[in-house]
Design goal:
Blueprint (H helix, E strand, L loop, with lengths): L5 E3 L4 E5 L5 E5 L7 H14 L8 H18 L14 H10 L4 H14 L7 H8 L14 H33 L8 H15 L17 H7 L15 H15 L3 H5 L5 E4 L7 E8 L9 E8 L7 H20 L8 E3 L17 E2 L2 E3 L3 H11 L5 H13 L8 H9 L3 H24 L5 E2 L8 E2 L4 E2 L27 E3 L1 H20 L2 H22 L1 H9 L3 H12 L5
Helix pairs in contact: 2-4, 3-5, 6-7, 6-9, 6-11, 7-8, 9-12, 9-13, 16-17, 16-18, 16-19
Length: 570
């Protein structure tokens, strides 16, 4: 059973134990407010440090920093707030106005508000002020232009591919050495022995008698390795920090994961598909913070069944990190981090990550930090870190689907605010609108075609009416109030061969009117009727229509003339 959060230091120090058992300490005595207010804030804070609310240190730290800013602001007031029951609506409004209209300002307001609203002692006026909606600032972050993102991915692919080929090539040589392929004492054997030492210790064989942090590589091994520099020694089996960033960029481009997810990736578990020669299926666990309790984890199954398959990059990443993961497991059994790199410095200093987890051990580092990502971008000549904007690019322009977000968040935060999405949407919307118009014109004929007349139907000038009393266009006195031209748009209308000649003549007459009338007038009065007749012509076919024109009678001509002159009403 997990221990609840601990309040010590006379109720002014909170110990937050996360789901792994690690403890983070928050000292409210450092806040520049009265002890009464410190104690009230500590109680509110501690109440959330439970697995059902904040199961990671990331969450508690996310609230702690804005709380420090809030209390620092209170310390500047002429009339200090002694405790939360004295917090006024005016003070809260001043605090809101003092925050910048940025993502961080929004975070400061909303996190502090969430904590304070948990206190039942707040006055009604203060509670009302806190409850008012806070508008989210418009995102300034936009997706990459296509050429820029392609350049980023191409650079990352080139860098990681070179590293993968280097490591797998040396891995094959080491496997041959371990199988006894090379003659003892030969150059190839010495290289294999050096690689074996690298794989076991992370170091090339060196002179331990030299009183230095790391002695020189022994001469016979330096000769077969090609030198003593990192590219000659440990880089043969381990990724560098920047090569790991390149791998992270490829994971982003392939799957749309954000940096925090990539940074925390655990080693994917492989399960064989049916048959020993079947494709490899990897079970990838994704962990994302800043979501509600119980919603931190997702699982993806990625299959490697060819060069373009989603699991191929996972296979290559496993191959590139195999020696680093084995070395770290020796140093710290049970470590399951996926992205592990080696540093030229030994040993590295590894401050604990915000989550309380180790960021590395010995000469090995874990994951990708934001500063490292920015450093990679600068080194490669790009303007910004590839991850935040890259994720937006992949999920809004390439995958066009949420990535560890709800559909609503994806639409609101990423899609609707991105200029490129809006720009790309213009021709799509125009095409859709054109399709709607085309479809509307294509379906204007609502009358039903029949082989013959139904004695129960009522004849009209253009068709037979199957249900005169239940017209979709009723008249005030009952029955149908639509003109005879509207019959073709009515589902109650029935058209059979006896109507063909009359309707073909009407179509011909409307064509003649088009040349005689002002275009605007013809469009207003006759275009819809003409469109319905065009539709009918298409349904009957050219041969039937031509025969109908040849069969036009004087009665047909007389009826159509009355109809066009407005002398024939329903």
């Amino acid at each position: 059973m997990r221990r609840p959060p601990v309040l010590t230091g006379n109720g002014l120090v909170v110990e937050h134990r996360d789901r792994t058992g690690a403890v983070a300490v928050y000292d409210f005595r450092t806040l520049p407010v009265t002890n009464a207010l410190r104690r009230s804030l500590a109680r509110l804070f501690a109440a959330r440090c439970v697995p059902s609310r904040w199961s990671s240190h990331h969450s508690s730290r996310y609230f702690w920093l804005p709380l420090q800013a809030f209390t620092a602001y209170l310390a500047t007031l002429d009339a200090p707030v002694a405790d939360l029951d004295q917090l006024t609506a005016g003070v809260w409004k001043q605090w809101r106005l003092s925050r910048q209209n940025t993502r961080f300002g929004y975070r400061q307001i909303t996190t502090v508000r969430g904590l304070l609203l948990d206190d039942p002692r707040l006055s009604a006026a203060a509670r009302e002020a806190l409850a008012r909606r806070v508008l989210q600032p418009r995102a300034k972050e936009v997706s990459f232009q296509e050429a820029e993102f392609d350049a980023i991915v191409t650079t990352a692919r080139r860098m990681f591919r070179a590293a993968h080929l280097r490591i797998t090539g040396n891995a094959r040589h080491l496997a041959q050495w371990r199988s006894g392929t090379f003659a003892r004492g030969s150059e190839a054997w010495l290289l294999g022995e050096a690689l074996d030492c690298l794989a076991r210790t992370g170091e090339a064989p060196h002179d331990t008698r030299v009183r230095r942090q790391r002695g020189r590589v022994l001469a016979r091994y330096a000769r077969v390795l090609g030198g003593e520099r990192p590219e000659h020694t440990w880089q043969r089996l381990f990724l560098t920090r920047m090569e790991t960033v390149a791998l992270g960029v490829l994971l982003l481009a392939e799957h749309g994961w954000n940096l925090s997810v990539i940074n925390r990736l655990k080693v994917p578990q492989a399960a064989p598909d049916a048959g020993s020669d079947g494709p490899r299926i990897y079970r990838v666990e994704l962990e994302k913070h800043k979501r509600g309790a119980g919603r931190y984890f997702e699982t993806r199954n990625l299959t490697d069944d060819g060069a373009a398959s989603p699991g191929r990059l996972i296979t290559q990443a496993l191959e590139a990190t195999v020696f680093a993961r084995a070395a770290v497991h020796t140093l710290s059994p049970g470590t399951d981090r996926f992205l592990i790199w080696r540093s030229a410095k030994a040993p590295l200093e590894h401050p604990p990550a915000e989550s309380g987890k180790k960021s590395g051990i010995g000469v090995f580092g874990f994951g990708i930090s934001g500063s490292t990502a920015k450093g990679w971008a600068t080194q490669q000549g790009f303007s910004s870190s590839p991850f935040r904007r890259g994720r937006r690019t992949v999920n809004t322009l390439h995958r066009r689907a949420p990535g560890q977000n709800s559909q609503a968040t994806h639409d609101r935060v990423y899609t609707l605010t991105d200029p490129q999405v809006r720009k790309d949407a213009i021709p799509v919307i125009a095409e859709a609108a054109e399709a709607v118009v085309t479809r509307a014109h294509a379906t204007v004929l609502a009358a039903e075609l029949r082989e013959g007349a139904d004695p129960a139907d009522q004849p009209t000038a253009t068709a037979d009416c199957h249900d005169y009393e239940n017209s979709p266009h009723p008249s005030p006195g009952g029955g149908c109030g639509a003109s005879f031209l509207m019959c073709l748009a009515c589902p109650n209308a029935r058209i059979h061969p006896a109507h063909h000649s009359r309707l073909a003549h009407l179509h011909h007459a409307l064509d003649n009117l088009r040349t005689a009338l002002d275009p605007g007038q013809w469009h207003r009065q006759w275009e819809d009727g003409h469109a319905r007749l065009e539709h009918l012509k298409g349904q009957l076919g050219t041969a039937v229509w031509t025969r109908a024109l040849a069969d036009v009678t004087d009665t047909d001509r007389e009826l159509i003339a009355l109809l066009l002159n407005g002398d024939l009403d329903p």
